[in-house]
Every structure is written in C-alpha cells, then in structure tokens.
Design a protein that fits this description.
The protein is α+β, with helices and mostly antiparallel strands and 731 residues long. The protein has 30 helices and 17 strands. It is globular and about 80 Å long. The chain binds iron/sulfur cluster.
Length: 731
C-alpha cells in the first residue's frame, strides 16, 4: 500500500553535480528537495562532505544524539566524479550516520550502482531522519521524477530475497533490470550492531542481483531501526556524458589512459581482474601481517588453503566490475555454492566474494583453513546483512576467550568455540541474525561484550585486563584485518582514524615496517597527515581507492624520484614519493578539474579533503560522552601495539623485541625474565604511541586533546560559525 507519493523535476546534471539534495523525514512522512549552493560545494566538496553537511544541518546541537534516536540522520551520497563510466572505480558512494558501535560518526564506502543512480535521479546526497511506525520501502524513480513510500510489512528483509524482488518489481523488462539498484539490510541488522547495508547491481553476465557492502559501523542496523526494508532507485542511461563534465574530452582522455594501464599491468602485478583482493593473503602471511588467532600471530600455516589458488578455482571467470566500466573489475564471486548449514542448508546459492578482509577475519583469525567454510560465512553475513570484518574480529575475540576459559560451553550456550571450529562460528552467526542466545550478546560488538562479560561473569581484574588487551576494538569499532604490532605508524593509522580502526584512512605498514621509509616521529606524523587526507578525497568525489595504488605505473619510482618527466613535467614536490603514486595523483587532480571546471593543483586538492576531515572531527564533539576526550578514544588495545601473552612474545622475540629493547630503551636483557622483558617492552611501546599521538596532533594542527585548533580551522577557511564555536568550547 502506498503511504505517500512525491513528484519532482529530475534536474540535468551540471559539472558533476545534480545541485539538489533529498531529505526524507520518516516521523512526519515529509519529503524536501533543497538546493546545493556554491558555498556548500566550496566547504564540503561532495560525497561524504555533503553527507556531513546534511548531518550538521539536521542533528540537534543542544543535546547528544544516540544512534537509535529518531534524530539520527542516515545519509548516502555519491560525489561529483561518481557515475563516470570510463574512469576506473568511479561508482562508489558513502554512507554516514551515528554508529551504534561507536556513538560517533561512521562513514562507510560502498560500490554497487545505487550511489550513482541516486545522483542521476537528481540528488547529490540523501538524508533520512526519523523512524517510521511501519515497515516501509522507498522507491526513487529517476525516470518519472517520483518518490514513493510504501508499506513493506510483508516483504522479506533477507538481502538476496528483497534485492531480487524489488529489481523484478520495478524493471519493465529483463533488460531494464540493469537500471535498478536496491539498498537493503537484513535480519542480522535488526538484531545486532554489526548490520551493514547492501548496495545491489544486476549482473547481466550472470543474470542475477549482486551486492557490495557498506560494511562498517552498523549502518544497516540504523536502516532497520528506522524500519526501512529497501530503497530502490531506477535510472536509465547513466553515462559519462550525463554527468555533464566541464571538459568531456579531457575526461575521456584521462579515463582511456588510466583504463589502459589497469588492463595492461594488472596481470603482471596483483591480478585484481581475476582474483581480486585475495592476492593479499600470501603477501600478508609472508610479511607476518595476516591476523591469525585474533591477531596473536601474523602467519597462518594453512594460508595456502585459503589463498589465491584456492579462490582462483572457485571464482567465476573474468573481470567483475561493481560499477560500469571499472577496468579493475575486482568484485568476484562464486556461483552454485551448496550451503552446509543454516536455513539454506543443501541449497545452491550465489556468493559475492570473499574478499581479503573476509578471508583474514573469518579464516586465519579463527584458525580456519577451509575455503568453502569461509565462502559459507561470507554468504550468510551478506544474506543477514552483517559486516564480515566485525564478525571476523568479534568471533576471534570470543575464540581466544574460550581458549583461556573466560568463555566456556555453559556461557556460550553449548557452542564449542575452539580455534578452527567453523561450524560453531556459523551457528553463532545464525544466532546473531536471529538475535538469540549467545549470539545476542556477541552481536552487540566487542566493546559491549567486554562490559557484559566482566559484569555477568564476575571476572577478576586480571581477566578484565586481558580482555581489554586482546579485544581488538577502538572507539567501539572492530579492527580491520591487518597486524600492526611492528608498525607504529599503522597503529596510529588505526587509532587516529576518525571513525575507528579501518584501513581506508591510512595503510602505512609497508612504508613503515617493511621499507623503513618513515623512521622518525615527524615523518610518521607527516604520513599520517597526507595519506588520510588523500584517501578522504575518494569519499568526497565518489571514487574507489583501488585503482589508485593496487595497480601502479611501471616507471612509478623513476617519476616519483625525479629521474624522468611525464608530459614534460617534473613530479611536484608535495607528491614526490613513490608511495603516493604521483602520476595517479596527478590523473585524479586532472579528472576532478575536467569534471568540475575548477583549476586546482594537488596541494589545493588535499586542502579540500583536510577541510572536511576537520569538520568531521569537530562534529564528533557533539557526540562524545561527558568527560571523554578524543585523546582517550584514540587509544588502541595493547594487542595492536605489542605481545600480550608469553607465547606471543616468544614467537617474535628474536626478530623484533630484543633488538628494540636494546637499541631504543638501552636495556640489557640478559638477566631479565620473559615477564620482565614483556613489561619493559610494553612501557616502551605505550610511550611511543603516546609520543606519536602528540606528533600527529601537532602536525594536524590539533590541540593536545586532539581537537582542531581555531587557527587550523581558519587556515582551512572553514566558514561555519556554529561549528567554530563548538570547537572553541573544547580548545
Ligand atoms: S576496483 Fe573493484 S571495488 Fe573498486 S570500483 Fe572497481 S570493481 Fe569495484
């Protein structure tokens, strides 16, 4: 039954923008379309910036908003470059809201067709506030210029079911299915804080609906809390021309060049077109970085069983773009997979993935060496709408507590969570999705688990300390799947990330630990400024990061070090670093200028990101609990810094720890017990982390408590008086 119908004129896009935003209030069943002003573009650029603009506009400023308050604003945006179909990776969108896990702003980027379709349907961003009384679905018809809100009590919430149903409902014919994208969550999102959003596209080659996930921080949980079952968007003929770039010839030329490079070099480099991010499994193992047994170790004996050859056999052939024209095409999947557990037991299903993060989180970190077991976990997480990273890290935490007896069969409701027991982990996932038994506790995330276990099981101080040391969360968000113990810079990359420990802000392990290119605190702080700001730009513009650095020019080193020129140009000083892939940075700047008609350089490009980054940091001040500072929440568990247990220490003692104690702390370890050496190492590493915090805050222009200074906000030309006032109160 239709609850409301709203008609609008579909605008023509201009220089990458629709120049409108859409606001839906589910309390009042109100729909508003508002103009995007030139000032809004200047301050916020687009994408995540526009999401934040809308959050700032609609969130109450006089009280702290919790994630399940109807006032929480769920925003989705593409970006001015989003929806281009000839430059690789131009189909991403970004979701923001107040997270149930962290209580602050989460941003989660996602592929699939929905983001570009929303823009081409007329909206640079959409904001949804309020909470519907009934289950609803929203249909944005970008062809007819109509938004329809309908009752959806009888619709399933399971991802694949609802995606297929809505695609069939709104497509006029088989061919039309490619012009539909569905955003949905699932039953897991109803019953846990790990709910993700699934963004669909219809895969014409395979003939079924596929998905990418906005995985982090519980965006799906918020979606279902607002009682939305699906948002379906329809838009035909989405092409580069329709984005109306200022200089289409330049866009085509840059797109052709970047596409050719991806196609020519991929098979010689990471094979993204055939095995996707799975190529990382052996690399991470070789460098001792593959989380194994809840990040205790970095190598997994059975890594080959879950490595690239295992999935090469299982993946469907060919490049698999999650957006039109992405030459990297890394979104692989498995067809005709037979489930062995749960409601689909015995049925053949199609699975999107697994990607590296799922393999590491739900494979090596659980000590599972069964590639099919990981595929089944991947399938059920997607079906239930659960984030595989939080599931991986959260269940690994439980497995380690089970090893130490803090959890046992009585406390888990009979689940034997021994390392490697994939079936028990799957049963736990089914419970999380149903909101039942032990699953109901686990699905609330590691931070809540720690509190619950400490209280309900009357744990002693040592047990509580152990839990705090090995529970891999920061700010309430579970860590993504890289070991950071030996990379101080990446400890900061996770700890200082605005939303919590997700590697999309900074991934500095190779530069820091493997190549030793940033040995000083100043150099680390510089890297922890440039890379997060650079990476933020992808979320502002509607882009995917993978085509930036997963396939790189063969002469990258020579250009970056000034040995050769490109287009008769020497590498600019600010990006003269091979890790920055300077030729690609210049491509992106050109691409941005060609679409928007602006004329900025790489310095100004970073400044745009830095402005939004700092705005997000200040906005989080609205949400911090009383008496808690950014300095407090930027902490990470000790497991991320160093060895918590004796066996963990001994496994790396010779390679790392003795040397560091001698050279950095000037300690003669010959007469020290293992426990004493571990204590000294901990003192040293915790002090280094605090020192890094000071260096990074200073470099970023933040106070000692991690708040952007007024001088910094002025330097960035932030022109939002109320926001400046908020920052002033916390200087
Ligand atoms: S590189 Fe992969 S994830 Fe990124 S847009 Fe292309 S297919 Fe999607």
């Amino acid at each position: 039954m239709t609850i409301m119908e709203f008609k609008y004129d579909v605008p023509e896009l201009s220089k990458g923008y629709a120049n409108k935003t859409l606001y839906i209030n589910l309390d009042k069943m109100e729909i508003k379309i508002e103009d995007v002003t030139p000032e809004m573009k200047d301050q916020f650029t687009g994408g995540k910036g526009f999401d934040l603009f809308l959050m700032w506009k609609y969130l109450p400023k006089d009280k702290k908003t919790t994630w399940d308050d109807p006032n929480n604003v769920l925003c989705i945006a593409s970006g001015p470059l989003g929806g281009t179909s000839n430059f690789p990776g131009s189909g991403k969108s970004i979701v923001t809201a107040i997270s149930p896990l962290t209580g602050i702003i989460i941003d989660s980027n996602v592929g699939g067709y929905a983001g570009p379709f929303i823009k081409y349907a007329g909206f640079d961003a959409i904001a949804i506030q309020g909470k519907s009384e009934k289950e609803i679905s929203i249909f944005i018809d970008g062809e007819a210029g109509k938004i329809i809100i309908e009752e959806a009590e009888n619709l399933p919430s399971e991802t694949y079911k609802i995606g297929t149903l809505m695609t069939e409902k709104y497509a006029d014919n088989e061919r039309d299915k490619r012009e539909i994208s569905v955003i949905s969550a699932g039953p897991g999102a109803e019953n846990s804080y790990w709910g993700c959003l699934n963004f669909s596209w219809f895969d014409t080659r395979r003939g079924y609906v596929r998905y990418k996930q906005a995985g982090r921080g519980g965006t799906g949980t918020i979606f279902r809390n607002k009682r939305i079952k699906a948002i379906t968007i329809k838009k035909r003929n989405v092409r580069t021309q329709e984005n109306n770039p200022a200089d289409i010839d330049s866009v085509k030329e840059i797109g052709r060049k970047h596409t050719k490079e991806m196609v020519d070099l991929d098979s010689k480099q990471n094979e993204m077109r055939t095995i996707g991010t799975v190529h990382l499994v052996p690399i991470m193992h070789d460098f001792d970085l593959l989380p194994t047994k809840n990040f205790k170790y970095g190598r997994f004996d059975e890594h080959e069983k879950i490595g690239k050859e295992a999935y090469r056999k299982r993946f469907n052939k060919g490049p698999d773009p999650c957006w039109k024209g992405c030459a990297v095409g890394c979104s692989h999947g498995v067809s005709n997979f037979e489930c062995k557990t749960g409601p689909y037991k015995g049925q053949k299903v199609s699975v999107d993935g697994p990607e590296y993060e799922t393999i590491a989180g739900c494979g090596s970190s659980w000590y599972v060496g069964d590639p099919d077991g990981i595929i089944e976990t991947n399938f059920y997480c997607d079906t239930y709408g659960l984030d595989t990273i939080s599931i991986g890290t959260g269940i690994a935490f439980c497995m380690e507590l089970y090893e130490y007896g803090i959890l046992n069969n009585e406390r888990t409701g009979g689940l034997d969570l021994s390392w490697g027991n994939n079936n028990a982990a799957l049963e736990l996932i089914h419970q999380i999705a149903r909101g039942e038994g032990f699953g109901n506790i686990v699905g609330k995330g590691i931070r809540n688990m720690k509190e619950y276990f400490a209280k309900e099981y009357n744990l002693n101080n040592d047990e509580i300390k152990l839990m705090n040391d090995i529970g891999m969360e920061s700010k309430g968000l579970e860590f993504s799947e890289y070991m950071t113990k030996e990379s101080l810079a990446q400890q900061g990359g996770y700890g200082f990330a605005l939303k919590g420990p997700q590697h999309d802000e900074a991934w500095l392990i190779f530069e820091d630990m493997v190549r030793n290119n940033i040995p000083t605190f100043e150099q680390k702080a510089n890297a922890l400024w440039w890379f997060p700001m650079w990476r933020t730009s992808f979320g502002l513009l509607g882009l995917c990061k993978l085509p930036w650095n997963d396939i790189i020019p063969e002469d990258n080193l020579d250009f970056a070090t000034g040995k050769i020129l490109k287009d008769e140009m020497k590498v600019p000083e600010d990006i003269a670093d091979p890790a920055k892939i300077p030729e690609h940075v210049l491509n992106y700047v050109k691409y941005y200028n060609a679409v928007t008609g602006n004329n900025i350089d790489s310095v100004e490009y970073i400044k745009k990101s830095e402005r939004v980054y700092n705005i997000q940091r200040v906005m989080n001040l609205l949400l911090l609990p009383e008496g808690v500072s950014f300095r407090d929440i930027d902490n990470i568990p000790y497991r991320a810094m160093g060895p918590v247990t004796e066996e963990e220490y001994l496994s790396r003692e010779d390679e790392y720890y003795l040397k560091q104690l001698k050279e950095e702390a000037n300690i003669d370890t010959s007469d020290l017990s293992v426990e004493e050496k571990m204590t000294e190492l901990r003192k040293l590493r915790e002090a280094r982390y605090e020192k890094l915090k000071n260096s990074v805050y200073k470099y970023r222009g933040w106070t000692i408590n991690g708040v952007p200074t007024i001088e910094k906000l002025e330097e960035l030309e932030v022109d939002i008086p109320e926001l400046i006032e908020l920052a002033k109160k916390h200087q």
